[in-house]
Inverse folding.
């Protein structure tokens, strides 16, 4: 197979996009984990689930800000949704960026309601007992499942945005990037929730233990996809672009993958250190993919 | 004379380009483009560098001359392998345009002349089109905050004029007209060159093999890659990765959800009294 040749110019997607990919992934992943904890059915996981929904919404808040700041014309951000030339709304399902704009809007609604619900459950919103009771039972489950689908879409579509291009690396690994970002978002979110759980006194110890186990499963999934990504890029002849000067970032990525397995075996290791390192690894992976293709 | 609403475009015959850059100057003058600050490349007579927001025409200089060791990287079949290839590069106004496909705001439209046009008042500067264009044609104008490229002088076409670059070209290397007419001219010219022994001469974008056909197509004196043009195998639309990208994502999501459920539903720690994670 002949290597792919690319003559595309870099779009100069830099720090704002990296920040969006990172926080968007954490938001979608945390929401999914919050729902999974509820679906697992153990009432002792309730507190962790509430934290997951709250973390999801807080992580989501800066996302539209990052995206808007990255635009050349930030005041025209609404052009992503409104067709100012033809009238009506602009919705292009074959353009991942268009689809993602709508998904972000929809997920914002789901995340916000779940955030309010989680706050209401904890009694932190006055007079919100009616809301808390409204979001119990089957409607809450359906709401959570739809929100999870949207959240997972937010985790993964960012990879598809990169893949649907003619850039080296991104388009070379077109079938892997969506999955890779999704798996990495799940592992990062599990690490974030683990960090929050270990920083607090009110999360069930056993829930934290099982979060740790979930994190390890997600990391394995992520590691497999990283290997597939490297294979796809190598086959296309772009491997040198993602190696070379990016060695330092790869070391951080590797550390983030290894640390969930080693942390429990190392004595004197601060309990929040491992999740923080894992989060750094998630950030480094996105930085690698975004920046390496554009240099 | 007003132009009919039929496909219009360029046929650029690189065999008679002399690298005078009149097209670049005319383009900048008409479209009020300042140009990029001058840089010294030190390895070519090409000091424009690339197509971008300020360069909507770019005369490529492909200097196929011996290096220090006397070897020629891509020798031509004539003149002992030496040649200076020159090509006035421009937006191809593809029939199947990658930029138009991915643009999330509908800022990029196809005009009544079948050309591809970026509406500056609709573009919000997301730069997705830059990521998608396989020719590196589109650039980002930092001052205006929008993506820019050749408009095929849409304003001049509406006034019944021809694009500035074609009008300025002294050798008629850049020919402008209705695409059907240009195809006939290109076929004749290719036949004449091949008869004269230029076996590597070929048309690029004349047929539908590259992005469904190009409304700015070329007669090349060497392989497309030499001119930084993707060959047929590499001329692929961004949307080819839509389905595989989402399928990969869905498969990973399913695996991730199963993994999460297995982790959360599995037996709890043995011997635990379910205390909380508070640090002592």
């Amino acid at each position: 197979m002949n290597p792919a040749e690319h003559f595309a110019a870099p779009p100069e997607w830099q720090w704002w996009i990296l920040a969006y990919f990172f926080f968007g992934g954490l938001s979608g992943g945390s929401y999914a984990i919050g729902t999974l904890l509820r679906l697992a059915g153990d009432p002792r996981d309730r507190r962790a689930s509430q934290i997951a929904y709250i973390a999801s919404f807080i992580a989501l808040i800066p996302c539209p800000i990052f995206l808007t700041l990255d635009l050349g014309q930030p005041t025209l951000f609404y052009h992503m949704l409104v067709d100012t030339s033809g009238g009506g709304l602009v919705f292009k399902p074959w353009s991942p960026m268009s689809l993602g704009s709508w998904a972000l809007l929809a997920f914002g609604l789901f995340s916000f309601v779940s955030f309010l619900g989680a706050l209401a459950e904890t009694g932190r919103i006055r007079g919100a007992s009616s809301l808390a009771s409204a979001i119990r039972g089957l409607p809450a489950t359906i709401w959570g499942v739809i929100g999870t689908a949207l959240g997972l879409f937010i985790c993964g579509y960012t990879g598809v945005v990169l893949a649907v291009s003619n850039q080296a690396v991104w388009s070379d690994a077109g079938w892997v990037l969506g999955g890779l970002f999704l798996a990495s978002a799940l592992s990062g979110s599990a690490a974030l929730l683990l960090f929050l759980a270990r920083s607090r006194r009110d999360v069930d110890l056993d829930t934290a233990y099982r979060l740790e186990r979930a994190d390890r499963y997600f990391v394995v999934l992520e590691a497999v996809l990283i290997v597939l990504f490297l294979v796809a890029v190598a086959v296309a002849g772009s491997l040198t672009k993602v190696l070379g000067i990016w060695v330092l970032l790869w070391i951080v990525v590797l550390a983030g993958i290894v640390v969930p397995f080693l942390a429990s075996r190392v004595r004197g290791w601060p309990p929040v250190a491992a999740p923080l390192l894992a989060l750094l690894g998630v950030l480094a992976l996105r930085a690698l993919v975004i920046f390496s293709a554009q240099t | 004379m007003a132009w009919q609403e039929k496909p219009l475009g360029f046929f650029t015959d690189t065999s008679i380009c002399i690298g005078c850059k009149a097209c670049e100057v005319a383009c900048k003058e008409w479209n009020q483009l300042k140009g990029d600050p001058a840089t010294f490349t030190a390895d070519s007579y090409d000091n424009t560098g690339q197509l971008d927001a300020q360069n909507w025409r770019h005369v490529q200089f492909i200097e196929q001359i011996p290096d220090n060791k006397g070897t020629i990287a891509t020798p031509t079949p004539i003149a002992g392998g030496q040649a200076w290839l020159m090509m006035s590069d421009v937006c191809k106004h593809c029939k199947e345009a990658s930029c138009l496909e991915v643009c999330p705001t509908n800022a990029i439209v196809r005009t009544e002349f079948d050309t591809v046009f970026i509406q500056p008042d609709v573009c919000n500067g997301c730069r997705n089109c830059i990521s998608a264009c396989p020719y590196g044609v589109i650039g980002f104008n930092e001052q205006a905050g929008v993506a820019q490229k050749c408009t095929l002088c849409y304003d001049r076409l509406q006034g019944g004029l021809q694009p500035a670059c074609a009008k300025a070209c002294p050798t008629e290397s850049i020919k402008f007209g209705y695409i059907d007419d240009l195809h006939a001219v290109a076929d004749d010219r290719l036949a004449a060159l091949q008869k004269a022994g230029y076996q590597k001469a070929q048309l690029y974008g004349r047929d539908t093999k590259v992005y469904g056909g190009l409304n700015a197509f070329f007669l090349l004196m060497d392989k497309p890659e030499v001119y930084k043009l993707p060959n047929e195998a590499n001329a692929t639309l961004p949307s080819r990765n839509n389905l595989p990208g989402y399928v990969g994502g869905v498969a990973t999501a399913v695996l991730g959800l199963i993994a999460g459920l297995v982790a959360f539903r599995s037996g709890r720690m043995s011997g635990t009294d379910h205390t909380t994670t508070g640090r002592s």
In short: Chain A touches chain B through 88 residues (CB under 8 Å). Residues 15-292 of chain A form a domain with the Formate dehydrogenase/DMSO reductase fold fold (CATH 1.20.1630.10). Chain A has one domain: 15-292. DSSP finds eleven helices and no strands in chain A.
